[in-house]
Amino acid sequence: MKISDLVAEYIVRLLDEEGGNAEIKRNELAVTLGCVPSQINYVITSRFTPEQGYIVESRRGGGGYIRITRVAADRKLAVMHIISSLKDSISATAAEVILDNMTFGELISPYDHALISSALSDKAYSSVPQELRDALRASVMKNMLMTLIMTEKQSY
User: Which residues contact 145 (CB under 8 A, 6 or more apart)?
Assistant: First the structure.
């Protein structure tokens, strides 16, 4: 088993034990698990994202911590959280990562992923000036996700 899997399992276990809220000290956790602190950062940024149903807060310094909160498992609420976390512009690559995470977390079906991905691709915006593409992509993504949850379409 990879160290990143062990770190993720440890954090999930903490979240389960603490009712969905865990506060960790990165350096202490690294010593406990026998890894480097940057590995903890990697796992948190890649596996504990809003798209996967988590809110992460951190405070730096001597008394610093990383607080991870598991958000409600309700599909509508989780997708609304993602929509509200989207900025006014998004690259095709960043949009694809979010869609991948949503599919992995079973918030959208593979079919929905393919459809939305197609609508957000650079190819779809080839006639739009480059400086406007990311803003248009963010608007389309928000609207498509909103339509999904408002219609409660679940094709998986």
Answer: 79, 82, 83, 116
Cα–Cα dist 133/9, whole Å: 39
Backbone φ and ψ of 36, nearest 5°: -90, 150
Sign of the torsion formed by the C-alpha atoms of 46, 65, 79 and 91:
negative
Q: Which DSSP string do the residues of 58-113 spell out, in sequence order? A: EE-STT-EEEEEEPP--HHHHHHHHHHH--S---HHHHHHHHHHHHHTTSS-HHHH
- With b for 16 or more beta-carbon neighbours within 10 A and e for fewer, the 12-37 pattern comes to eeebeeeeeebebebeebbeebebee
Tell me the residue type at 109: S
| DSSP tag of 19 | T
What pLDDT, in 10s, does the model give residues 127-153? 999 999 999 999 999 999 999 988 875
Q: pTM to 2 decimals?
A: 0.60
- Judge contact between 66 and 7, C-beta under 8 A: no
Cβ neighbours of 80 (radius 10 Å): 14
Closest CA to 136 of 82, 91, 85, 98: 91
What order do you get walking across the sheet with 54-59 strand by strand?
21-24, 65-70, 54-59
